[in-house]
Amino acid sequence: MDQRTNFPVVLFAAAVFSGAFLLFLVQPMLGKLILPWFGGGPGVWTACLMFYQVALFFGYLYAYGLVRFLEPRYQWFAHAIAFGGALFLLPVTPGEQWRPEGFEADPSIAIVMMLVSTVGLPFIVLSATGPLLQSWFAVRYSDRSPYPLYAVSNLGSLVALFSFPLLIEPFFPMRDAGWLWSLGFGAATILILAAGLMAVVRAPGGPRVGIGQGEKKPGNLSVGRYFLWMLLSACAVIVLMAVTNKLCLDVASFPFLWILPLGLYLGSYIICFSSERFYRRPLWLGVLLVALALKYLVVLWIPQAGIASRFFWSIFVQIPLFATILFSFCMLIHGELYRLRPSAGSLTSFYLGLSGGGALGGLFVGLIAPRIFDEYIELQLAYGVAWGVLVYLFARDPESGLSLTRGYWRVWGVGAISVAVFGVTIAGMRVDPVGLIHTERNFFGVLRIMDWEKDSPENRRRILKHGSTIHGAQLLGTGYRRRPISYYGVSTGIGLALAQRIGGGFLNVGIIGMGAGSLAAYGQAGDAIRFYEIDPAVVRFASGGGYFTFLEDSPASIEVVPGDGRLSLQQELDRGQRNNFDILVIDAFSSDAIPFHLLTREAYGLFLEHLKPSGLIAAHVSNRHFNLAPILYRIGQSYGLEVMSVNNPEFGLKIAGPARWIFLSRDPARMRTLQILAEKRMRELRLDGSKVAFGQLSPTAYMGEPLWTDDFNSLLGVLNSAK
């Protein structure tokens, strides 16, 4: 083929690439923009993924309808009109009118409706472009396979995903990125419509062919084939979303941990749909079984405490294990889908089946599973279903090494391995933690209430866990119920700060993050304590009649404001309400899902508006995965604040657990008196004060660290940099 006739092929490839690039660039861009509006948890990205999967299905359904019922020129005109309508909706970034004003226990539907209204039509039009262009390509070049264009599409998607954290997020505010995306959409429109024209002109060397004539009738494809397409696609999406959920819950919800699983998912598509020779069943079957064994079987022989346990459960082991499981599952699933592909004439039917399965998988994880399960068990369910389908496909294929025609012993061998791996996996997902008395799952995660050491009169206590992180504890023995423990004990930074009463007056305290309500134990008659809590289940557990009694036992005046702390404080300020807190406690960073919008310069500017001139901001930064100190020091420096950290070790169950608190204040004298008070309290409690570390850095410390703002922030830079 000469250079002149190569041009249409290059144009098709460029159009497919640009459409896919924009389609997947907009996903993390909008997710990052709206994340702080809904609390910053992993449920936000799950809702976004659910919308994208469903919108992808409607895009493919639209493409199928065009190809099935319209002649080529009418297909092109219809698609051009759709692009014109999408252009009128730009930019796709939601305006401030979409920012939630009230409190919603589950904002999933609100997120989906916002995305439908802002990016719905552009997303559907772009998602339809891939199958349309491939179908048109198959008509123009009947002797060439259009499936490599699917790999080009997925390559564009992959490049977009990794361009976001590397090229977009570090350099552009999300609203500016939205305008750049809109310019790209305009350019892609020209490319796509130009390539589409190739379908309505005479194909080289032959007469004009109507694309509708090339599409097989649905009756030519069996129901069983459709079912397998949808089932395999649904399993891949469920594994993708469930692994993403798990990573975001165990580490944090930020774009890198959205993009890594999605990139692996797309990477398997690229490899499998580029050529069948890249898919080797024995290889990926072996990788999957080894990864599953390491993840779910080896742990049975690792002691629950010690260096081996800490290493195994660290993110540097868990992330690669989950990534390997996801990628190997997707390689097997997408490899089998490629083997089950139809002829080029049924392309849009094939993609419709894949997108339909993806939409069902997205709806299951995003909408159904949180309402029918009290734990995150959809991942294990996807393992079981996908594995069963794969073994079925292997067994019925005469070319497979596991074919029934090659001896039953092979199938029985895989069956035995399956029973071993998935038996332990499924059993493990239903093993209740020690002392479990209640489990509840909602948009914000899984909460567990447990009673530990129930037979010990002095040490029996009730624990609140969010995911794998303890969010509060209360002693249940007589005379101990009102004693704060754990991160909030009397020798922790916050325990010392709340004991500091300037002039012996009453305290006015604001607390973002309620947990078990432990800090209410420091309240005295005349004090006012105002909690801000986004999770309604946490409010219910800590309030009267719940599982913890700190709030009802406190003599202070207690008020609970449901909703995101930052949004609530902003709404109060907009109403002219300044709270004049003596201490504002930010207790939202010890969990596995860190709300980054509470760690920006703008957030602390808002906090200062609600603080007395001599007041303290107290941030709890005990965290397994992130060192947040540089972020807070840089914010403090930008406002000219005094910054001090207080680190304490374990002092015993009834005194304090290990904790790290960072304090910020406009008043240098307040910091000096806090340290003097701390030393005095250590002597009164007869504790070794030398074990409590007070850190005050020079004005130039951390100056090389980035200053976090609402537009520029990345948790990846502080990942596990702490000891």
Structure report:
The protein is 53% helix and 11% strand. With 723 residues, it is an alpha/beta fold. Strands 7-6-5-8-9-11-10-12 form an eight-stranded mixed beta sheet, with helices on both faces. A four-stranded antiparallel beta sheet has the order 1-2-3-4, with no helix packed on it. Helix 1 runs antiparallel to helix 2, helix 8 packs antiparallel against helix 12 and helix 19 packs across helix 20. The chain is globular. The N and C termini lie far apart (61 Å).
The rough form would be described as globular
Mean pLDDT, nearest integer? 84
Strand content: 5-15%
How many β-strands, per DSSP? 12
Between the first and last Cα atoms, what is the distance in angstroms? 61 Å
- Helix content percent band: 40-55%
Structural class by sheet pairing and helices? alpha/beta
Please list the strands of the largest sheet in the order they lie side by side: 7-6-5-8-9-11-10-12
CATH fold assignment of the largest domain: Rossmann fold
Number of domain modules: 3
Name of the CATH class of the largest domain: Alpha Beta
Nutshell version of this structure?
By secondary structure, the protein is an alpha/beta fold. Helix content is 53%, strand content 11%. It is built from 22 helices and twelve strands.
List keywords for this structure.
3 domains, 723 residues, eight-stranded mixed sheet, Growth Hormone, Chain: A, 53% helix, four-stranded antiparallel sheet, Rossmann fold
